[in-house]
Amino acid sequence: MKTVGREENIWVLDLGPTSSSNIKQITERGHRIYNEDVLAEATGQELKIRSTEPGKEGHLVVDVTRYLAENLRHDREKFDAVMAWDIPDYLPEEVVKPTIERIHTIMKPGGILLAFFHTRDAGPDAPYYRYHIGNAETLELQRGPQFRLQRVFNNRHIENLFRDYASIKFFLGRDNIREVLVIR
Prior knowledge:
Elements: H1 2-6, E1 11-14, H2 20-27, E2 32-35, H3 38-42, E3 48-50, E4 60-62, H4 64-70, E5 79-85, H5 87-90, H6 93-106, E6 107-118, E7 129-135, E8 138-143, H7 155-161, E9 167-172, E10 177-183
């Protein structure tokens, strides 16, 4: 929020469920915010198809082509900031990399992305939370829908996921969470 607060008239993309608190905090600073709940979209049954991939034949997977055709369809280099929260940890495997690549395309060079990643201690039943900006220094967490933690990325996996970005910084957070700031 301190970084976003320094700029004027920026575009922010919030990848979590709609939060009136986030909308208020961003718009009161004179910014524009767009909300897209990619996790709800990626886990919906309407995007499921049967895999033909060797070893996964018949398993239900997300139709990545349709997912990308229906989600994150924004102009190139539109967003100055993206709040990804911990969405990558909960996304189905087949859409994680395409989602991060699409975000790279729609972020402006020098834009900042905030993401949280669970540590190895989190466990598969780590609850999913909605994040609400309380003020410039506080996030309020609200228990969200029952999404299952799909994976725990280690630092090297996170670096590989954001390999096309200019820089990445890791911060150890509380409650088995790493905060990651990524610059496009």
